[in-house]
């Protein structure tokens, strides 16, 4: 798995890892820290986080606490991992102990929401042997429903759909109802992501949430937002916006294979205080992974 992570994140690895090796293995002077800062910013680690990390490493190098290129690189990996790690261990996980556990997937169109639901349902249903019901509550786009139906077929899970243009809340309601009736383990609700009609979209999401709660007062148990890693700081703003409409529990960071800016995972944890729970590192069914801060930092630099 780690090998695959490193391979699929090769763009960030080449850009950031190579620059850091070149920098930290040379003489340490003012320019070293500037180059390090620049490399982290280029990788989308974010200005505040970058400044903090560089200041810490510089102080440790000056005091002689860490010496030599390799030790400095390892210390940098540790510092980055500590930023990406959720404060509380449970916060980084998806708790599947409810019956059913209701997961609401939100995010802007094109960020990889449907693909993520497909990968996740396949993993849960086919690999973990759980029973999954999908709810196609993006009723605005017929293509979204069709795409989800394709994933349901591949995963062998149930799907609840409504006619095009029907009320998204009622589809979500029916999906949770079906999940309860069937005694399913997990219900995953797909939602719309049309940002050009922002106010309407946010109303729709909070309404879907309320309707789900009519079936199960403590649901959704997990609201996940998909953020496209290639959109950089824009993704951060999207996550903030969605968090204002519905309480978001975690981030699925997609398309990490397609960017040299994988540092965005750190900016999300540090600046939004939201745990990255899953990462998408490609388009196949196996390319969804739990996020592990240590592996991630190592894959970036090690
Ligand atoms: P949605 O509109 O948010 O539901 O987005 P889709 O799931 O339809 O995904 C949009 C595009 O991104 C599709 O072409 C997907 O194959 C692609 N995609 C999704 N996740 C990943 C990923 O982790 N890596 C790569 N390379 N492509 C992805």
Strand order of the largest sheet: 3-2-4-1-5-6-7-8
Please describe the biggest sheet, giving its number of strands, its sense, and whether it closes into a barrel: 8 strands, mixed
Alpha plus pi helix count: 12
Number of strands: 8
Task: Kindly report the average pLDDT value.
Answer: 93
Helix content: 40-55%
Q: What is the alpha-carbon Rg in Å?
A: 21 Å
Give the SSE string. HHHHHEHEHEHEHEHEHEEH
Terminal residue distance: 15 Å
Shape: elongated
Low-confidence stretches: none
Structural class: alpha/beta
- Fraction in beta strands: 5-15%
**Which molecules are bound in this entry?**
guanosine-5'-diphosphate
Keywords: Cell membrane, Cytoplasm, GTP-binding, Hydrolase, Membrane, Nucleotide-binding, Receptor
InterPro entries: AAA+_ATPase (IPR003593), P-loop_NTPase (IPR027417), Signal_recog_particl_SRP54_hlx (IPR013822), SR_rcpt_FtsY (IPR004390), SRP/SRP_N (IPR036225), SRP54_GTPase_dom (IPR000897), SRP54_N_sf (IPR042101)
Protein name: Signal recognition particle receptor FtsY
Organism: Paraconexibacter algicola
Q: Could you characterize the architecture of this molecule?
A:
Involved in targeting and insertion of nascent membrane proteins into the cytoplasmic membrane. Acts as a receptor for the complex formed by the signal recognition particle (SRP) and the ribosome-nascent chain (RNC). This is Signal recognition particle receptor FtsY. Part of the signal recognition particle protein translocation system, which is composed of SRP and FtsY. It is a peripheral membrane protein. It catalyses: GTP + H2O = GDP + phosphate + H(+). The model has no long low-confidence stretch (mean pLDDT 93). Helix content is 53%, strand content 13%. The longest helix is centred in the C-terminal third of the chain and has 18 residues, at 198-215. Helix 4 (47-62) packs antiparallel against helix 5 (69-84) and helix 10 (233-245) runs parallel beside helix 11. The protein has an eight-stranded mixed β-sheet, sandwiched between helices. It starts with a helix and ends with a helix. The chain contains twelve helices and eight strands. A hairpin with a 7-residue loop joins strand 7 (276-280) and strand 8 (288-290). It has 302 residues and is α/β, with parallel strands linked by helices. It has helices spanning 2-8, 10-24, 30-42, 47-62, 69-84, 113-127, 142-155, 168-182, 198-215, 233-245, 264-272, 293-301; strands at 101-106, 132-136, 158-160, 186-190, 222-228, 250-254, 276-280, 288-290. It binds guanosine-5'-diphosphate. Guanosine-5'-diphosphate is lined by residues 107, 109-115, 193, 226, 254-255, 257-258, 280-283, 287.
């Amino acid at each position: 798995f780690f090998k695959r992570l490193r391979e699929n994140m090769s763009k960030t690895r080449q850009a950031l890892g190579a620059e850091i090796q070149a920098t930290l293995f040379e003489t340490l002077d003012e320019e070293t820290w500037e180059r390090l800062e620049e490399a982290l910013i280029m990788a989308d680690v974010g200005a505040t986080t970058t400044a903090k990390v560089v200041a810490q490493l510089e102080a440790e190098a000056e005091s002689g606490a860490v010496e030599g290129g390799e030790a400095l690189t390892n210390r940098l990996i540790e510092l980055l991992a500590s930023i990406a790690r959720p404060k509380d261990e449970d916060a980084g996980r998806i708790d599947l102990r409810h019956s059913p556990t209701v997961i609401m997937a939100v995010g802007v169109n094109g960020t990889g929401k449907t693909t993520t639901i497909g990968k996740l349902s396949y993993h849960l249903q086919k690999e973990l042997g759980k029973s999954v019901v999908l709810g196609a509550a993006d009723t605005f786009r017929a293509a979204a429903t069709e795409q989800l139906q394709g994933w349901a077929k591949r995963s062998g899970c149930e799907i609840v759909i409504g006619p095009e243009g029907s009320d998204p809340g009622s589809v979500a309601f029916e999906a949770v109802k079906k999940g309860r009736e069937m005694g399913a383990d997990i219900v995953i609700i797909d939602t719309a992501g049309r940002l050009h009609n922002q106010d309407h979209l946010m109303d729709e999401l909070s309404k879907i949430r309320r309707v789900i709660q009519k079936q199960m007062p403590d649901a959704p148990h997990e609201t996940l937002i998909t953020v496209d890693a290639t959109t950089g700081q824009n993704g951060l703003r999207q996550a903030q916006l969605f968090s204002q409409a519905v309480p978001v529990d975690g981030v699925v960071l997609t398309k990490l294979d397609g960017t040299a800016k994988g540092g965005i995972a750190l900016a999300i944890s540090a600046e939004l205080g939201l745990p990255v729970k899953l990462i998408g590192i490609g388009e196949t069914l196996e390319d969804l992974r739990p996020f592990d801060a240590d592996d991630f930092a190592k894959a970036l630099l090690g």
